Every structure is written in structure tokens, then in C-alpha cells.
């Protein structure tokens, strides 16, 4: 990608109208164009040494209001672009007009953004330094929502992440309330291998005990999604998957009030309304939204009702100090149709044999942020966050081949099982980025400190009522299983970008973790009614992770990157909670550990081709499983222990080509862009002990060479986007290879359908957007265009058990406006 050198010229002053003027304050207003006078959008504009800044609009304009009188350095930058700085003067009640003209190298990028059509490459990469984090040498992607033609209404993940290679998706239902994604052969179960965040703070149940993300914001409220693969562990925790961060929209910096509304309808009674208001009044920037969506669902017994609320307030105390508060609230109720057997799926994938299963996850996430520009070179940020949430389910949870029918003796249905989790979490994270000179070259250090405390109360196997509606009415005095878990975590990290030459950076780093897990309570009750207690267990471990990344610029438009970083996954609550009272937990149970490594090349050629192609290797040791064992007295039991490790390697590639732009830089007929997001994955067990009982004698075998479950051999997404002025349309096809659902690599599914093959499938989607009169838009599309019957997973428990079918053909239509 071309390096941009901005020239700031012709500074002048204009008097503001009296009602706009603020004593001792002025405004900086400007325009960014290329050498031919064409505007450039998406450039970051900041007043260096302060927290004031903005991003240039698509027409190249920008404005920073309420700037105290004084001398400033105006800094303009973008991803992989050389920072340009110019000293300016701000006078009271006056506008400082600044014209930013790009050198000739900008012409190609300008065509990509402006002439080459909206959405040329929504999956961009993060800059070397963003905010209080550094990403040099790492494999990163950014999905910018305003450049997508996709079904954002139901959070269609295969469209949203289409240009992020290697992302596997679990499609449990059509509600879209829970996004389940993973990469590199890891399990997509509620995105639990990623560190899932919103605006930089945690939103999952318990990062070290139960890291499932039952909440994600509605995509209509998201500005962009940041993805960093496994090498993010040093700055964002030890998880194998990496970082997944939803960045929400903010209030308009240049208007006192702006309103956004999007009203949508679609198949199966779907109705959605998204309404937001935001702006800037004096020193206060605010943004809030109300979102509601409901539908009957594609399958029987799959109705859902979702409401999201969000408020974000940011107050500029001084030029260097900003304090923000935000809170998100999810209300959610979903009827769970349950899984299907293979025979049922073949007969009619829309059927359901569970009419009494319900699921609800009320979720509240508050956060306080303090950003402080300590010096011109030192930026500091403190986030204090919490979580008050629940996971509630009620239903008939027997195997899917056992029908939920009336009890012949009572004339009613059998009582349903009631399970409830409650989460009360608190955390604080202090992050810093400091620029300094080393051997006459600028270096950047990122350092931080984090504290986290999580409390989970787990009540399971409760006796619910015999009805069919959603309720949490316990029919007995207590839950048979009643457990309490606590997690305490303190960590510190340091990473540093060393710029060894003009084109070569090396970024080493370390992270030190202190994790303490405790658990106690009651497992259940014996046949005689006596309590089976879980004695208080406590596990403390301290460990250090190390990693290093490097990046070499081959040309202004291309660079090679490589990295390796250790990963770690502590023993989860579910792994120390035996499913049966006869199970035994290995007292020497060890945490899983391993590492991620990447080697790739990325860049672009003029406005014609953009690419990112890399090879990766993931080592995952000390996987936890169960082994059959026999005691000296002949009794059998299951031992929960470390059973082995796996190795995953593959290719992740993304290429986009603009054939019309290769011929002409001006097309009255519009533009076509072709993309291919291709990945190949080979995930195998390097060691996996299995013990079976033969003639009352335990016989150990090894599944070395077996494929890792939930790891398709390939994930390919190809597509084409047509744009012309305010209209754009995207067609894409997702092709996913077959995968096993268990480590034994079972091919023929049993009657319960919880194991067996997940066949390869292909699904096509088409979406279009028309923007007109600057403020209005119409969006429409069809998902699963050819009405394929497919499924992405076999569930062993909720929301199954059994096969979870993907949705058939469905459509949506949305009308929106911004004022």
C-alpha cells in the first residue's frame, strides 16, 4: 500500500458566527484531497498531545470544535501510512481552515476508497499502533460494517466475516443473538476460544472459568470488528483463538444531535427496529440506541424476542483528560426447538420434537473509561468494567431419540429440567503506549496491568414444572446441584516495537499471569437423599508467556510479517465438575498450553489487487478428556484428566481483484470487485490416550493421527460486489468441508445423533444496499439462496442435543435514515 505524505497548506482564519463562538476557543476545519482534487475519507486527524481528533468523511472534510487557543501540531495518518504533521494556530472564536493535499502516491488509494466503490476490502488490518495497543507483526483484520452488503439484522456471521479467511461459524438458530465463531480448527462454541470484548472490555461469562460469550451487540450498532489471531495473547490474555473486539458507534463529533433509524422485516414473521441518537454538546459526546427484534423462526418451536439497550457518555474534562461511561443491557428469550436425529433431518429439517425448551440470558455490562494524554508521547487508558448476568434454561433434556410425550400415569408431561447460572464479575485494566527514541529511531512500548474477579453460581438439575411456557419456577426446595466458583486474575504485560531500520520492525513481548480458581458446593444427592458435596478446591498458578513478531516492508504496497506467541487455557469450571457422581477429577489435572505461529505476506497493487496470504501453525497440548478406569474392587469410573495434544497447520488467504479498475479509473457503468477468502486446515491429534474396558480389563489405545473435532478441512468464501454511485450488491458463496464431531472420528451417527460426520456444504447469499438523498437507505437480501439443507454442528446438550440445522432460504428488507 502506498505511503502517504500529506502537505498542509494555505492556513487561514474565518470568524465564526457569534452564537457558535466560545470564549478562548476556536475550531479547526479542513479538507483532504489528492493531487487531482478528489477527496480522501477515513484519515485520522488529531491534535498531537491532546485527546481531540476526528476522521475525515467520505467527502474529505473534517472538523474539530471547541479547541482552546494555542499552538498545535496537526497530525494526519491512516493504516500503513506515514504520519504527516503540521503546526497550526488556533484563535478565539475563529476557524482555522486547513487544506490537506496528498502527494501523487495517493491517487491509487483514492480510487480504492472513492472510485473503486464502497466495500472494496471491508476486512482491513490494524495499524502498528492503535489507541493504547500495538499490533506490529501480528495477523489482524478489521471488518468495517458500513462497507458491507450483508444481513446485519440477524447478525449473519458467514456474511459479516466473509472476508476474514478461516473463520468457522456455528449456526444454532436464526436469531443471531449469539455469534459462535472460531479459527484454525478451534471450537466455535459461543466464540469461547477468542477473548471476546466490546469497546475493549470483557463481555463473556468468565474469562478463565467459563469463557462463553452469551452476548454480542447487534451488528447494526457496531462500527467495526477487530480480529487478532492467537498472537494477541500478550496484550489481551492467553487464549488460543486471539482477540475479537466489537467497537460500537459513537455520537457525531460535529453535531449536537443526530438520529439513526432502521426498520426491517423479513421471513418467518421477522420484525426489527433499531433507533439511535447521538451527538456532541459542548464537552459531552453521547450515543445511545434501542434495538428490538422478534420472529417465529424457520423451524417449529424457534420463536425469539430480543431487546438491546445501550448508552455511552464521554466528557472531555480537559484537552488531555476524557472520562466515559457506558452500559449495555440485553433482554432475551428464545424457544429452543432442540436437535434432530439424522433420520429426522433427512425427512424434514424444519421439524421439532421439543416444544417446551426455552433459553434466556439477561446480560448487563457497565464500563467506565478514563483516557489521559500524559505527555505528547505517552497515552494512558484505564477501563473499569463489570458484568451482571444470567444463563437460564428450562426444558426436556433427554436424548433426542426419546420423545417428550405425555406421562400415561399422570396425563401430563414430565417435569422439565431447570438450570440457572448467575455471573457477577468485576475488572480493571490500565493500558499505556509510550513513544521514545532509541538509537535515533522512534520505538513504541505498550505496557499494562489488569485485575479481574469473577463469581459464578451454578444451580442445575432443578425440577421445573410440567408446562410449556418460559418460567423459572422451581418445584422443589432446592437445586440438587448447587456450586459456587470464583476466579481471581492479575496480569501484567509489556510489548515493544523496535524499528531497526526504516522498513523493518521487531516486536517482542511478555505477559505474566496469576490465576486463582476456587470451587465448592454440592454436586447432587445420592439415592438415599444425602448430599454429595464438592469439597472446597483451590488452584493457584502463575505463568509467563512470551512472543515475538516482525514485519518487513518490501515496498510501499507490501510487507512480510511473522510471529510466534505462547497460549494458555486454564482448567474450566465444567472440567472440574463431573457430569456424573462416579466420575473422578485427576488431582494433577494440568492446564492446556501451546503456541500460535504465523508467516505471511500482505499488500496491494495500485487499486487493482489487495491480498493477505499466510501459513499458520497451532500447537494445543494437555487437552482434557475422560478415561475409563477400574478400581481394585472391580468398580468402574471415569477419570477426568489430560489425554493428549493436537497440531493444526494450514493456509489463510484473502485476495480481492477489481477488473474494471484495472482498465480504467473512471467507469460510468460502475465497478465490479471479486474476492476469494480461502483457507485449508489440517488439524490432527499428535497424542490422544483412550482407555476402553475389554473383559473387565482397561485397554489403552491412542488416537494419534485422528482429526480434531469441529475442524473442517477447508473454509472457502468467494464473492463479487457491484457498485455504482449509491448502489451496491454482493453475492457470495460459502463452501465448508466436512468435519468430525468427536475425537473418535465417528462417521456413522448413533441414534442420539450427538456424534457423527458434519457433511460438507455450500450456501449462497445475496445482499444489496441503495443509498440516496444522502440520508436514506434501502437494504434487502436473500440468505441461503438455493434453499440448501445443511448443518454446522451436532450438539451434546443445549441447544440440542442432536443435529442443529442451518436455516433454509429467507429474505429481509430494511429501510433507514440518518438525520
How does the SSE layout of this entry go?
Elements: E1 6-15, E2 25-33, E3 44-47, E4 53-55, E5 61-68, E6 70-77, E7 84-90, E8 94-102, H1 106-115, E9 123-124, E10 129-130, E11 133-134, E12 140-144, H2 157-160, E13 167-170, E14 180-183, E15 194-198, E16 201-202, E17 222-228, H3 233-236, E18 242-248, E19 258-266, E20 270-281, E21 284-295, E22 304-316, E23 321-335, H4 342-347, E24 358-360, E25 363-373, E26 378-395, E27 417-438, E28 441-463, E29 481-499, E30 504-525, E31 531-555, E32 558-569, E33 584-585, E34 592-605, E35 609-630, E36 636-657, H5 659-663, E37 671-694, E38 697-702, E39 714-724, E40 727-736, E41 739-740, E42 757-758, E43 761-772, E44 776-783, E45 791-795, E46 802-805, E47 810-818
Parallel strand pairs: 2-8, 15-18, 33-36
Antiparallel strand pairs: 1-8, 2-5, 3-4, 3-6, 6-7, 9-12, 10-11, 12-17, 13-14, 15-16, 17-18, 19-20, 19-47, 20-21, 21-22, 22-23, 23-24, 23-25, 24-26, 25-26, 26-27, 27-28, 28-29, 29-30, 30-31, 31-32, 32-34, 34-35, 35-36, 36-37, 37-38, 37-39, 39-40, 40-43, 41-42, 43-44, 44-47, 45-46
Give a summary of the structure in a few sentences:
With 819 residues, the chain is mostly beta strands.
List the main descriptive attributes of the protein structure presented here.
Immunoglobulin-like, disordered N terminus, 25-stranded mixed β-sheet, 47 strands, Maltoporin, Chain A, 819 residues, 2 domains, mainly beta, 6-stranded mixed β-sheet, 57% strand
Amino acid at each position: 500500500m502506498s505511503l502517504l505524505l500529506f502537505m498542509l497548506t494555505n492556513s487561514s482564519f474565518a470568524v465564526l458566527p457569534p452564537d457558535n463562538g466560545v470564549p478562548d476557543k476556536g475550531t479547526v476545519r479542513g479538507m483532504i484531497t489528492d493531487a487531482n482534487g478528489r477527496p480522501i475519507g477515513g484519515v485520522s486527524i488529531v491534535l498531537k498531545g491532546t485527546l481531540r481528533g476526528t476522521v475525515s468523511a467520505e467527502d474529505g472534510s473534517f472538523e474539530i470544535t471547541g479547541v482552546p487557543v494555542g499552538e498545535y501540531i496537526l497530525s494526519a495518518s491512516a493504516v500503513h501510512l506515514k504520519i504527516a504533521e503540521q503546526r497550526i494556530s488556533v484563535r478565539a472564536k475563529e476557524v482555522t481552515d486547513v487544506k490537506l493535499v496528498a502527494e501523487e502516491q495517493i491517487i491509487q488509494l483514492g480510487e480504492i476508497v472513492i472510485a473503486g466503490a464502497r466495500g472494496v476490502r471491508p476486512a482491513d488490518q490494524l495499524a502498528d499502533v492503535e489507541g493504547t495497543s500495538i499490533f506490529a507483526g501480528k495477523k489482524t483484520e478489521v471488518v468495517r460494517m458500513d462497507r458491507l452488503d450483508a444481513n446485519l439484522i440477524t447478525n449473519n456471521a458467514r456474511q459479516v466475516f466473509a472476508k476474514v479467511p478461516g473463520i468457522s461459524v456455528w449456526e444454532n438458530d436464526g436469531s443471531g443473538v449469539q455469534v459462535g465463531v472460531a479459527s484454525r480448527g478451534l471450537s466455535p462454541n459461543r466464540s469461547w476460544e477468542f477473548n471476546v470484548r466490546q469497546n475493549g472490555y470483557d463481555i463473556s461469562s468468565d474469562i478463565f472459568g467459563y469463557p462463553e460469550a452469551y452476548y454480542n451487540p447487534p451488528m447494526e450498532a457496531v462500527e467495526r470488528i477487530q480480529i487478532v489471531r492467537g498472537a494477541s495473547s500478550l496484550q489481551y490474555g492467553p487464549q488460543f483463538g486471539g482477540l475479537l473486539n466489537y467497537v460500537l458507534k459513537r455520537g457525531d463529533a460535529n453535531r449536537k444531535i443526530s438520529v439513526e433509524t432502521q426498520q426491517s422485516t423479513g421471513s418467518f414473521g421477522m420484525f426489527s427496529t433499531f433507533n439511535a441518537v447521538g451527538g456532541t454538546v459542548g464537552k459531552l459526546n453521547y450515543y445511545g440506541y434501542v434495538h428490538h427484534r422478534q420472529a417465529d423462526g424457520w423451524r417449529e418451536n424457534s420463536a425469539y424476542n430480543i431487546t438491546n439497550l445501550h448508552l455511552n457518555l464521554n466528557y472531555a474534562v480537559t484537552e488531555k483528560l476524557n472520562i466515559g461511561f457506558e452500559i449495555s443491557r440485553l433482554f432475551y428469550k428464545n424457544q429452543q426447538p432442540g436437535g434432530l436425529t439424522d433420520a429426522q433431518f433427512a425427512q424434514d429439517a424444519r421439524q421439532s420434537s421439543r416444544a417446551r425448551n426455552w433459553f434466556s440470558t439477561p446480560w448487563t455490562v457497565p464500563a467506565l473509561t478514563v483516557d489521559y494524554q500524559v505527555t505528547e508521547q505517552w497515552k494512558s487508558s484505564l477501563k473499569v468494567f463489570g458484568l451482571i448476568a444470567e444463563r437460564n434454561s428450562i426444558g426436556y433434556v433427554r436424548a433426542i431419540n426419546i420423545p417428550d410425550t405425555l406421562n400415561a400415569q399422570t396425563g401430563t408431561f414430565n417435569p422439565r429440567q431447570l438450570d440457572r447460572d448467575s455471573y457477577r464479575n468485576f475488572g480493571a485494566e490500565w493500558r499505556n503506549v509510550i513513544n521514545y527514541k532509541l538509537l535515533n529511531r522512534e520505538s513504541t512500548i505498550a505496557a499494562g496491568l489488569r485485575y479481574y474477579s469473577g463469581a459464578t453460581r451454578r444451580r442445575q438439575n432443578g425440577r421445573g414444572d410440567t408446562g410449556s411456557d418460559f418460567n423459572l419456577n422451581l418445584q422443589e426446595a432446592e437445586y440438587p446441584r448447587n456450586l459456587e466458583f470464583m476466579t481471581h486474575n492479575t496480569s501484567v504485560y509489556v510489548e515493544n516495537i523496535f524499528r531497526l531500520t526504516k522498513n523493518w520492525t521487531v516486536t517482542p513481548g511478555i505477559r505474566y499471569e496469576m490465576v486463582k480458581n476456587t470451587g465448592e458446593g454440592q454436586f447432587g444427592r445420592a439415592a438415599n437423599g444425602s448430599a454429595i458435596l464438592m469439597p472446597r478446591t483451590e488452584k493457584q498458578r502463575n505463568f509467563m508467556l512470551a512472543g515475538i513478531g516482525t514485519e518487513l516492508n518490501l515496498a510501499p504496497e507490501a510487507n512480510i510479517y511473522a510471529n510466534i506467541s505462547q497460549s494458555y487455557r486454564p482448567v474450566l469450571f465444567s472440567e472440574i465438575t463431573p457430569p456424573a457422581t462416579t466420575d473422578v477429577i485427576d488431582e494433577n489435572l494440568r492446564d492446556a498450553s501451546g503456541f500460535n505461529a504465523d508467516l505471511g505476506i500482505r499488500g496491494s497493487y495500485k487499486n487493482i489487487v489487495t491480498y493477505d496470504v499466510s501459513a499458520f501453525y497451532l500447537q494445543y497440548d494437555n487437552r482434557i478428556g475422560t478415561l475409563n478406569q477400574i478400581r481394585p474392587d472391580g468398580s468402574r469410573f471415569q477419570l477426568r484428566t489430560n489425554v493428549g495434544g493436537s497440531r493444526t497447520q494450514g493456509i489463510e488467504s484473502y485476495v480481492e481483484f477489481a477488473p474494471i479498475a484495472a482498465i480504467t479509473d473512471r467507469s460510468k457503468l460502475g465497478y465490479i470487485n471479486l474476492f476469494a477468502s480461502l483457507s485449508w486446515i489440517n488439524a490432527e491429534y499428535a497424542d490422544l490416550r483412550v482407555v476402553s474396558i475389554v473383559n473387565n480389563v482397561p485397554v489403552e489405545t491412542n488416537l494419534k493421527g485422528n482429526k480434531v473435532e469441529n475442524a473442517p478441512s477447508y473454509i472457502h468464501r468467494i464473492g463479487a460486489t457491484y457498485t455504482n454511485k449509491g448502489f451496491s450488491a454482493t453475492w457470495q458463496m460459502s463452501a465448508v468441508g466436512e468435519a468430525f464431531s468427536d475425537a473418535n472420528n465417528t462417521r456413522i451417527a448413533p441414534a442420539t445423533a450427538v456424534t457423527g460426520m458434519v457433511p460438507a456444504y455450500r450456501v449462497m447469499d445475496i445482499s444489496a444496499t441503495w443509498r440516496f438523498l444522502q440520508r436514506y437507505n434501502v437494504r434487502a437480501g436473500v440468505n441461503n439462496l438455493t434453499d440448501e439443507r445443511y448443518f454446522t454442528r451436532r450438539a451434546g446438550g443445549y441447544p440440542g442435543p442432536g443435529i442443529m440445522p442451518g436455516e433454509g432460504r429467507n429474505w429481509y428488507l430494511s429501510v433507514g435514515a440518518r438525520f
